[in-house]
Each structure stands twice: as C-alpha cells, then as structure tokens.
Design goal:
The chain is mainly beta. The protein has one domain: Immunoglobulin-like (Sandwich), CATH 2.60.40.2020. A 4-stranded mixed beta sheet has the order 1-7-6-3, with no helix packed on it. Strands 2-5-4 form a 3-stranded antiparallel beta sheet, with no helix packed on it. About 15% of the residues are buried.
Length: about 100
Amino acid sequence: MTVIKIKVNEHTELRFAGLGTAGYMWKCIIDDETKIKAEKRMDDKSSDPNNAGASRDEIFTVTGLQRGKTHATFIQSRHWEPDSEAINKVDYTFEIE
C-alpha cells in the first residue's frame, strides 16, 4: 500500500484515469474523516483530445485536517450497480504531520 505524507492544511492531488463515458466514476472512502478530506473534480481536458468519445481523468485533492494516520480507498464503479464489483481499486495510507 502506498503511503502519502502531508502536513495539516497541505494539499496533494491524486489523478485517476476516467471512464465516465462508460458510466464508471471514482469515489473515495476515508476511514477517519477527521484526518483528511478529499474533493473530486474532473480534468478540464480529455485524456485523448483526438478521440471525441474519450473520458476525462478524475482528480482528487486531499487535504490534511488533523495530525495522525488514516486509510483511504479509491474505487471506480458504476454507482447504479451497487452489487457489482469495482473495476479498479487503489488503497492509500495518509500520514498527517
């Protein structure tokens, strides 16, 4: 598992390949929301500007809120298919100083 170290009030960005045109979106599940917050936005540009149907990357800005450690899982799935498996899953441990 990847460890990311940040300071309180410091930001870091995590970029995930988008598949929005196929209905897949990323979401973040944080174990302890008193330690970090994650805000999502879509990239302004398509991952392939020459392809009209290309998806845009999804970017999460993670901010340290309080000293300590927490775990966050980023999952790419179709929100209307709650019983289906995620097609991508990435785990991070955040250490906030």
